[in-house]
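Bumping with the actual sequence this time:
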Amino acid sequence: MKAILLVGGMGTRLRPLTLKTPKPVVPIFDRPFLAYQLEALAQISEIDEVILSLNYQPDRIEDSLKADGSFPFKIRYVVEPAPLGTAGAVRYAKQYIDDSILVFNGDVLAELDLADVLDRHRQHNARATIVLTEVDDPAAYGLVETDLDGNVKCFLEKPEPDHIASNTINAGVYVLESDTLDRIPENTNWSLERSFFPSLIENKEKFQAYISHGYWIDIGTPEKYRQIHWDIMDRQFNVQPFRSSRADQVVLSPSANISETVQLIGPCFIGENVTVESGAKIGPYAVINRNCKIHEGAVLEHSIIWPHTTIGSRTVLRHLIIGHACKIGNDIEPIKGTIIEDESRIGGPAITF
């Protein structure tokens, strides 16, 4: 069996973080986001190949995954000639599909029993199965209504407020029978949500819903990107590097160089080859990725620092995201909530390692 990950988007809602880094490989702690999705697929032993449907900066995605390690299935990289939408991307990869296929949207993480999803699909002889999750505010998502037997009866992509009659939304995980893809026009920008799924309902085909009550998040915005880190630290989503750790865990790479006078307040994460000088305060909810240097007396709280960044002495960072290879000078306190794009230089003389 094969799976396909729709990872061709440009990640515009996450800019400026995604100007140079494709959304599927933005770092979650010290791993690309996509690696967490691949680990979820690895729980299904019958999956022997995962197709990555790419468009935006495909080489960066392939390089990141090669650096991350091996997975128990073949990974095939398929680059769209132009953006084809969610359905068009699946149709473009159809030449490699000959059976039921598991589809993941490229911006969701979920605590989900995929084997149970597949069982539900097969037991009901469904033509398609969609995973649903419950949210407090469904207006920003694809709203899905079902009957008492779990059949999908209505699919509204980002509905108007007066059309909202339930709180179950599209979780971005599907099982599709390969022959249902023939209705998708070739080399055409087509949507699963706006065209493919409504066609199943219109044709009265067997379209099943699977409601998941586990953790679910769409990381498409900076707010959600921050939240996934805090949720993992708080063990709301039980994955590495905080799996089975205590609530105030400090995760510290063995190669990090931390002065004895540094104050570490968990939960926090310090990656490979990070240097933290005397008197600095790290945490709570600080994430410092590999090859960063934090100078003396700096304070980092509720902030995410991408690799190869340097933070000056006595600089205070609270509720920030700082991109790759930035240099932040001494005695600076940026406004809370700021996102600093890759290779930025802010204040003071250049800082070197």
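The tokens above came from a reply further down the thread. The chain is about 15% helix and 30% strand.
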